[in-house]
Amino acid sequence: MTAATFATIGAGLVTVGAGIGIGLIAGRAMDGISRQPEATNKIQTAMIIAAALIEGVAFFCAVICFMALGK
Amino acid sequence: MASSEEFNLDEYILHHLTDSQEWHLPFLPTIHLPEWLSLHGVMLLLSSFFLTLLFGILYKKEQRVPKGLTNLLESFIIFVRDDISIKYLGKEDGRKMAPLFCNFFFFILMLNIMGLIPLFSTATSNINITAGLAIITLTFMIFGAIYKNGIKGFFKAFIPSGVPAPVLILLIPIEIAGLFIKAFALTIRLFANMLAGHIVIISLLGLIIIIGKVALPAIFLAVGIYILEVLVAFLQAYIFTLLSAMFIGQMLHPDH
Hints:
The structure holds two protein chains of two kinds. Chain A is 90% helix and 0% strand. Chain A contains two helices and no strands. The two termini of chain A are 14 Å apart. In chain B, strand 1 (22-23) and strand 2 (31-32) form a beta hairpin. Chain B is mostly helical. Chain B is built from seven helices and two strands. The longest helix of chain B has 47 residues, at 165-211. Chain B has one domain. In chain B, strands 1-2 form a two-stranded antiparallel sheet. Chain B has helices at residues 9-17, 39-58, 68-89, 91-116, 127-156, 165-211, 218-252; strands at 22-23, 31-32. The interface between A and B is medium-sized, with 12 and 13 residues.
């Protein structure tokens, strides 16, 4: 088991976490939009912001995995 | 290009994504750049040239009813001003700061889109450039807040109201660290998004070089990802501008 093995496993775990997080956000946003279609714009903006914040953490971890891969 | 036995995909991908002194042109000899100017530096200069061309010459301000290109650009500018700047900074500051956010939006958008055109290279996949852009945001978050609220008001923003004193010892360092983490997150988000997208495209095309003719359908996959990247180019420019406006707005108006 080299560092590269763990780095690739780590990248996979990052994807799982980010996927669950963004999936939950998108799902709740869909719920909100279907319940209140007139608030679509507000919900969409809030959804994109929250998704971007989660994505930032995910990318941060992905970059660390890349760095471990190079070692 | 090396023969297939000694072909190293990792090196090939990195060579095409990292900053270098060579500018590869299709069907033309490679341009060797001088030492003080790297490839991504050229891209920065070119994008500012294109933006000057776009807004200095092609954008016709005197048109009463905007038509064609002017109309397109104007809709973006109005969007950035009303939906990003004024929404998060208030009416007065929002109008004043709108030029900064328009600059962020169009500059990042131009760099992202240039990265998708085969002739050019992606400057936003260089962490130094995204860090430079985030430092501008950080500067406004710190010095803009000091300018507006005074030094006392600036530090007051780090003290959340209605919290017992012992908890503050824990909270204040977190709030101050958060200031820099926000800027750092802006850097990483833009950089990693652009880099990851281009790695995926080149990896898919690299399959053809490694496996041979069998992998030709990978072109369709690559085109699909490419179309997704066009969306990402717009989205990332929007998100960078939006989050910058949000963070600066939080520091300028700490009470709400």
